[in-house]
Amino acid sequence: MVSGGHEAAAASTQPDSDRLAQLKAFDERKSGVKGLVDAGVKEIPSIFIGQGADAAKVAPSHADLKFPTIDLADLAGEPEKRKLIIDQVRSASESWGFFHVVNHGIPVTTLEEMILGVKRFFEQDDETKRAWYTRDVTKKLVYNTNFDFYSKSSANWRDTFLAVAAPDPLSPEDLPAPCSEILIEYAGEVMKLGKVLLGLFSEALGLEPVHLVDIDLAKGLAVLGHYYPPCPQPDLTLGIHKHSDSDFFTMLLQDHIGGLQVLHDDQWVDVPPLHGSLVVNLGDLLQASFLRKKKKGFGAKQKIIYMVRIFMRKLI
C-alpha cells in the first residue's frame, strides 16, 4: 500500500519549548497557512522562516537542459513503437528520475477538474475546513499544514490534504463535498495509468511486463492536494524544501503557475507546466533499481512545488 507518501526531507530537528509552543498554537487554530493569509498577516511567523540548509533559496534554473517528455500515444501500436517508448522510459529513469508523460489516457477535463477540486476545498471558509483538520493519519482524509510540522527546523508555506485511495476505495461520505466526486474519479484514472507505467518500468528493467504489478505494487494509492497561498514575504520561506521521495513513484499534476524544479547533474532545472501532462517522479525505491541496473551510485534529491500528487508503492 501507499502509506502517507510523506517527503523524505533532508534534515529534521526537535523543536525547543518556545518553538513547540508556537507550533501548537498555530496547529490548534486549525486554519492552516491560508488562515494566516485570510487574516491579512504582513509578516510571516518565525516558524516558517528557514535557517541554514533550510533557508529559502530558489536556485537559478538551467534553461539549456530539456526536461524529457514521453508520448504514450503509440503504446498499443506496433511492437517497434512500444520498444521505443520503453527505451525512453529507461533513459529518462536512469538519467533524470523524472519525465513528463502525455497522451496517457486520462481526459484533460478530469485533470482540470481535479485541480479545481483542490482549490474548492482549500478556499472554503475556515470553519468548514476545521472539521477535516487532523494529525490522525488513520483517517481516510487528513488535512493540515505540513505532515512533518513538528520535526522540521522550519515549516513550509503550504496546506495539504491526503486521501488514501487504495487498497480500500474512497467513499463519498469519507470526503469533503467540494472535491469528493472528482477525487474518486481521479483516483480511478491514475490507478489505471499507474498499472500501465508499472508495466513500462518492468520492461525497462528487463523484467516481464507484469512483474511489478504481480508483486503488489499496484495495490496502494494515495492522493495529495497541495495549496500554496500568496506569501507576504516569499524570500523568507519555501512551499517545500528540497527532498527525495521514499515511495516507489509519484505522478504530479501541476497547475499553470509552475514552480517545480528538479536536480539533474547537480543543476536545478525548471519543469514548465505542460497542459494535459503528468510529471512522473521515480521514488528512491524505483530509482535505486534503475541505478543499480546501470551500476552507478544513488543520489538525486529534488525540490518540488505542485498541486496534486499520486503515490504508489508496495504494502510493507
TrEMBL record:
Gene3D superfamilies: B-lactam Antibiotic, Isopenicillin N Synthase, Chain
Keyword annotations from UniProtKB, A to Z: Iron, Metal-binding, Oxidoreductase
Family: Belongs to the iron/ascorbate-dependent oxidoreductase family.
The keyword Oxidoreductase appears for this protein: yes
InterPro entries reported for this sequence: DIOX_N (IPR026992), IPNS-like_FE2OG_OXY (IPR044861), IPNS-like_sf (IPR027443), Oxoglu/Fe-dep_dioxygenase_dom (IPR005123)
Protein's organism: Kalanchoe fedtschenkoi
Residues of the Fe2OG dioxygenase domain: 219-316
Superkingdom of this protein's organism: Eukaryota
Protein name: Fe2OG dioxygenase domain-containing protein
Molecular-function annotations in GO: dioxygenase activity; metal ion binding
